[in-house]
Amino acid sequence: DSGVTQTPKHLITATGQRVTLRCSPRSGDLSVYWYQQSLDQGLQFLIQYYNGEERAKGNILERFSAQQFPDLHSELNLSSLELGDSALYFCASSARGTSGMNEQFFGPGTRLTVL
Amino acid sequence: AQSVTQLGSHVSVSEGALVLLRCNYSSSVPPYLFWYVQYPNQGLQLLLKYTSAATLVKGINGFEAEFKKSETSFHLTKPSAHMSDAAEYFCAVSVGNEKLTFGTGTRLTIIP
Question: pLDDT for A70-81, tens place per residue?
Fold first, then answer.
């Protein structure tokens, strides 16, 4: 158990819909990262938040957005869903936001299926 | 930009045999390198990391990896495979900030 929690574990929805994925980082961790894992794209970094502020952006679509709240939990919002958005979405957390050597602890993921 | 190449999307070894999973990186500055393992239906777990302190890095579950700058490699090894090692393994690189760039993964199968 990494200490990072994600809800829900599974999500099935239809094209065009909007969903929200939730992540609670390890106690004390200030950084939260979102990754997407799909068969065709592999594991891709989406976005990072550090202490409530956006720190880095990766291959995140404009239809996707995220935020980190004062209690440090984070939400990833996916809208206008397409079949290709079906994937496993991971959240990870780390203690700091400025050093690449810091270990990231991954949650169990949310499996999104878009029908 | 940094990148990682994992040679071999599938590797099969017999129980008790040497495990060798290959990873080559590309980076214009000294990188931080990581190996993560993903068991079925689970998140990623850190096996080991290279942060320039020592070129031979020992991790959990008997795994180790050697950073070779001249070969831009960070191959993962384990002397004797165990059935519980069956999983998917990801090599990742980070430069400067904490963004991880992952390889495509290698699925390790252990033959009894």
Answer: 999 999 999 999
The alpha-carbon gap from A77 to the nearest alpha carbon of chain B, in Å, equals: 20
What six digits make up the tokens of A40?
Answer: 């065709």
Residue numbers in B near A4 (CB within 8 A): 43
Question: What is the sign of the dihedral through the CA atoms of B58, B59, B63 and B67?
Answer: negative
Contact yes or no for B33/B91 (Cβ under 8 A): yes
Name the residue among A45, A99, A105 with its Cβ closest to that of B100: A45
Inter-chain residue contact B98 with A107, CB threshold 8 Å: no
Distance between CA B58 and CA B63 in Å, rounded? 6
- Judge whether B17 is closer than 8 Å to chain A, CB to CB: no
* Model confidence band, residue A29 (pLDDT cutoffs 50, 70, 90): very high
Does residue A14 sit in helix, strand or coil?
A: coil
Task: Supply A95's token pair.
Answer: 């203690």
> Which among B82, B77, B72 is positioned nearest to B35, based on CA atoms?
B77
Burial grade of B25 (CB within 10 A; 0-12, 13-18, 19 or more): buried
Is residue A115 a contact partner of residue A69, using CB atoms and an 8 Å limit?
no
Is the confidence at residue A99, as pLDDT, over 70?
no
